[in-house]
Design a protein that fits this description.
394 residues, alpha/beta, Metallo-beta-lactamase, Chain A, Rossmann fold, 2 domains, seven-stranded mixed beta sheet, six-stranded mixed beta sheet, 12 helices, elongated, binds MU-OXO-diiron
Length: 394
């Protein structure tokens, strides 16, 4: 698909993969985006998962016929994009692999490729004689070698994973030709799960790009952003600053239903307090990737779980570890929990709430053995306190 006089989309859709990185469910599939930029010289920007190589070759030929590819620009080495490097080298042995020092050492480590290479540095350029590429190093967004490539004539940014999202590209690739509704929540899920740990590095990349005039962003996953480009940059900025929207992610685990009744009471309190925007997740039912996404999305986070093995209910421990691993910060946190003979869950959740600039809101609610009317009152009070705090904007 032609994007400009000099740029083609040659990526593929994967509707078979169950879990991205072996972890994250893909209800709408995923695209592996690759692009051709052609002046008198031809550059290919990233490749695709190697299972799609034969389709990929056909698409490259549809774009440029029998012209040879002079350069392979590698913005990112994760194998969903670098996977076809060895096959590409077999097809076109003279292609020059372009990357920064870390990229080139990874090419060697993953694929053991000899042949021509070109090392680029921050700000260096490559003249394609009719198009011109400029490189910006963006380490740890979300791998150490990541970089972005700007085509300076058309103001097109090839951004690697940044600004990407899950979801296949059905029939079209540019945002103006697609109903983009399904991509926005999938962008939050993609960002929070995969890039979420690296907010500071994303901020550094955004600073490097500030002041650069952009007409389109071509990520390695999801739509080519044109009309909605500013909204995409805003979303990445907000998420990487760990700014939450006014709402609550309420996560609870339960074994015999008592903690679930407490969760319902907290939800009632949220609603009584006038809060409508909250997502409830039952551990063991919701996939963790959606919980992580909603924890990044909303300013409020309420966590509730039973005590288990003198510690935290294991599925809640996993979520707490997932959020700590992504350095989730600046959240308003409410906690509740239960125990049968020795309370531990609430203590653990309070310790989590004390980290990373998070703030404990309301009275923690700890329930011994069965759920009673007084426990419901305390749960509703916690929900109301959280709603008031969120809606006050403080
Ligand atoms: Fe889409 Fe980080 O690879």
């Amino acid at each position: 698909m032609k994007l400009t006089d000099h740029i083609w989309y040659v990526g593929v859709n994967d509707r078979d993969k169950e879990r991205f990185e072996g972890l994250w469910p893909l209800p709408y599939g995923v695209s592996y985006n690759s692009y051709i930029v052609a002046g008198d010289k031809v550059a290919l920007i990233d490749t695709v998962d190697n299972r799609f190589f034969s389709q990929f070759v056909e698409q490259v030929k549809d774009a440029i016929g029998e012209r040879k590819i002079d350069y392979l620009i590698i913005n990112h080495m994760e194998p969903d994009h670098s996977g076809s490097i060895a096959l590409l080298r077999q097809w076109m042995p003279d292609v020059c692999i372009v990357g920064n020092r870390k990229t080139l050492s990874m090419v060697d480590g993953y694929y053991g490729q000899g042949g021509p290479t070109l090392e680029v540095t921050q700000g260096s350029t490559l003249d394609l004689e009719g198009a011109r590429l400029q490189f910006t190093l963006t380490p740890m967004v979300h791998w150490p070698e990541t970089m972005m490539t700007l085509e300076t004539e058309s103001h097109t940014l090839f951004s690697g994973d940044a600004f990407g999202c899950f979801g296949t590209l059905d029939g079209a690739v540019v945002d103006t030709d697609l109903d983009t509704a399904k991509y926005w929540p999938e962008m939050v899920r993609y960002y929070s799960n995969i890039v979420g740990k690296y907010g500071a590095q994303v901020q550094m990349a955004l600073r490097k790009l500030s002041g650069v005039h952009l007409e389109r962003i071509c990520s390695t996953h999801g739509p080519v952003w044109t009309d909605q480009l500013q909204e995409v940059v805003k979303t990445y900025n907000r998420l990487s600053l760990y700014e939450g929207e006014p709402g609550v992610c309420l996560v609870y685990g339960t074994m015999y239903g008592h903690t679930e009744r407490m969760a319902e009471a907290v939800a009632e309190g949220l609603a009584q307090g006038g809060l409508k925007r909250f997502a409830m997740h039952k551990l063991g039912h919701s996939d963790p990737s959606y919980i992580i996404a909603d924890a990044f999305r909303y300013k409020g986070l309420v966590l509730g779980a039973p005590t288990y093995n003198n510690g935290l209910f294991p599925l809640m421990q996993q979520i707490v570890d997932d959020l700590q691993g992504r350095v989730l910060k600046n959240r308003l946190i409410g906690v509740f929990g239960s125990f049968s003979w020795a309370g531990q869950a609430v203590k653990h959740l309070q310790a989590f709430a004390a980290q990373n600039g998070n703030t404990l809101v309301g009275e923690p609610v700890e329930m011994k053995q069965g759920f009673a009317a007084a426990d419901g009152d305390r749960g509703r009070a916690l929900g109301r306190a959280m709603a008031e705090r969120i809606l006050s904007g403080k």
